[in-house]
Amino acid sequence: MAHVKTNTHGAVPGLAVHFERKNDHHTNKEIDVSKTYLNQELMADGYDMLSRFNAR
């Protein structure tokens, strides 16, 4: 089951930063940033979420 939520156009940049974890100041103190290199990029086309959104 997927969760679908409607967001405004103005909310997209902030959501992109959150989803792509581009923030250096995480509120969750248990995040181990030294393991970030282990993350897998499922959409390895060179674009970020905001670029894809704007292209659409």
Question: Secondary structure elements and their pairing?
Answer:
Elements: H1 12-19, H2 49-55
Word description of this protein:
With 56 residues, this protein is an all-alpha fold. The protein has helices spanning 12-19, 49-55. The longest helix is centred in the first third of the chain and has 8 residues, at 12-19. The mean pLDDT is 83.
Summarize it:
This protein is mainly α and 56 residues long. It is 27% helix and 0% strand.
Name the overall outline. Answer: globular
User: What value does the average pLDDT take?
Assistant: 83
Oligomeric state as shown: single chain
Output the radius of gyration.
13 Å
How many distinct helices?
Answer: 2
Helix content: 25-40%
| Helix-strand string | HH
Percent of sequence in beta strands? under 5%
**Tally of strands:** 0
Which structural category fits the helices and strands? Answer: mainly alpha
Alpha-carbon distance between the two ends:
25 Å
Largest sheet: none
Low-confidence runs of at least 5 consecutive residues: none
